[in-house]
Inverse folding.
C-alpha cells in the first residue's frame, strides 16, 4: 500500500531541471515537476512517506505524489502516447527516441561500460574524458534521472553528452523502451561510448541475484547481442564492512559468472584483491586516477576516495579500457 499524507510546502530548498528539493511541514521532500507540475511555497500537497517511515537507506526524504494546489488537470506531453510506468498511479506519456529516429540495427563495436552502482559513473566518465559519452540509466536503483546530482555535474563538465532513460527510468534527454533500443539510440547519436548504470541507490535483498546490480548483466547481454564491446566496471572495496562486498563484490561475481566469455572486466593494475575464478580480465594502469577524477562527486556509501580508493580506481579502469577500445 502507498503511505500518503497531506501537507504543505514550507520551504523550497533548491531547484534543478526536472527536480525540486523541498520541505513539507518541515520534513525533506523531493518533487519531480515534470510529473506533478510546478510547486511553490505554501502549496497543499500529498507526499509518499513510506521510505522515510521505514528508515530505509534511500528514505531520507519524502516524495511529492500530487500537488493539490496547482498540479491537477495537467495536460499530457504534446504528441506523446507511449507510457512510462504504465498501469501504475504515476503513468505518464513521453516521447520515446525510437519513435523519431532512424535507428541502426547494430552497435558496430560500440564500447559499452556496464556498472552495477551509480557511484561508479563519475570515475568511469573521468576515464573517458574527451569522448562523446551517452549515459544510459537502467532500472535497479532510482528511476528518475533528475535525482542524480552526479549526472548533472558530469553534463556540466562535458563528460556526459547525452542521457537516456531506459525501461522504467525517466527524465533523460531521450527516453527508450528498453536497454537494447537505448544502446542503438546512443549509437544513432554518434556516441563514442555508452555508460550504463542504475540510478542513485540500489535495490537489494542480500541474495546473489536479487539486487539492482544485475542491471549490469542486462547491459552486457544487450551489448553482445547487438555487436557492441562490453566492459564490466568491477565493484570492489576495502572499506565495506560487509564480507560479501570486500575485495571483489559478490554483485560483480554474479555478473561475471552469468555472462559470456566475450565480456571483459577492467582490472586496476597493482590491485591487491583476488580475482574471481571466472571471467576475462584486462589489466589497466590507473596511476593517474585521482588527478583525472579531481573535483568530481566521488562517494560510495558515505566513503570517499581516501576511504575506499580501489572502488573508484576500478571504475576509472573500466573507462580507460573502453577508451582503448574506441582507439582500436
Amino acid at each position: 500500500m502507498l503511505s500518503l499524507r497531506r501537507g504543505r510546502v514550507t520551504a523550497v530548498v533548491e531547484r534543478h531541471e526536472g527536480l525540486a528539493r523541498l520541505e513539507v511541514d518541515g520534513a525533506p521532500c523531493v518533487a519531480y515537476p515534470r510529473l506533478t507540475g510546478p510547486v511553490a511555497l505554501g502549496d497543499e500537497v500529498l507526499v509518499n512517506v513510506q521510505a522515510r517511515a521505514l528508515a530505509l537507506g534511500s528514505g531520507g526524504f519524502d516524495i511529492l505524489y500530487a500537488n493539490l494546489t496547482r498540479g491537477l488537470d495537467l495536460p499530457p506531453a504534446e504528441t506523446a502516447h507511449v507510457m512510462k510506468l504504465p498501469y501504475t498511479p504515476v503513468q505518464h506519456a513521453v516521447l520515446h527516441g525510437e519513435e523519431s529516429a532512424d535507428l541502426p540495427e547494430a552497435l558496430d563495436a560500440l564500447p559499452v561500460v556496464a556498472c552495477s552502482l551509480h557511484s561508479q559513473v563519475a570515475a568511469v566518465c573521468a576515464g573517458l574524458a574527451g569522448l562523446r559519452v551517452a549515459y544510459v540509466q537502467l532500472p535497479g536503483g532510482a528511476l528518475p534521472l533528475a535525482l542524480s546530482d552526479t549526472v548533472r555535474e558530469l553534463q556540466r563538465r562535458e563528460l556526459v553528452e547525452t542521457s537516456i532513460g531506459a525501461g522504467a527510468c525517466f527524465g533523460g534527454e531521450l527516453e527508450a523502451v528498453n536497454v537494447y533500443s537505448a544502446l542503438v539510440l546512443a549509437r544513432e547519436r554518434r556516441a563514442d561510448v555508452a555508460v550504463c548504470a542504475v540510478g542513485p541507490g540500489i535495490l537489494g535483498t542480500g541474495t546473489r541475484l536479487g539486487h539492482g546490480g544485475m542491471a549490469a548483466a542486462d547491459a552486457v547481454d544487450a551489448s553482445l547481442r547487438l555487436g557492441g564491446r562490453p566492459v564490466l566496471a568491477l565493484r570492489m572495496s576495502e572499506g565495506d564492512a560487509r564480507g560479501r562486498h570486500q575485495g571483489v563484490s559478490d554483485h560483480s561475481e554474479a555478473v561475471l559468472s552469468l555472462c559470456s566469455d566475450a565480456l571483459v572486466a577492467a582490472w586496476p593494475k597493482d590491485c591487491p584483491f583476488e580475482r574471481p575464478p571466472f571471467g576475462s580480465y584486462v589489466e589497466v594502469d590507473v596511476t593517474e586516477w585521482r588527478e583525472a577524477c579531481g573535483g568530481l562527486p566521488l562517494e560510495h556509501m558515505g566513503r570517499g576516495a581516501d576511504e575506499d580508493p580501489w572502488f573508484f580506481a576500478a571504475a576509472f579502469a573500466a573507462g580507460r579500457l573502453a577508451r582503448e577500445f574506441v582507439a582500436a
In short: The mean pLDDT is 94. The chain has nine helices and 17 strands. The longest strand covers residues 4-16.
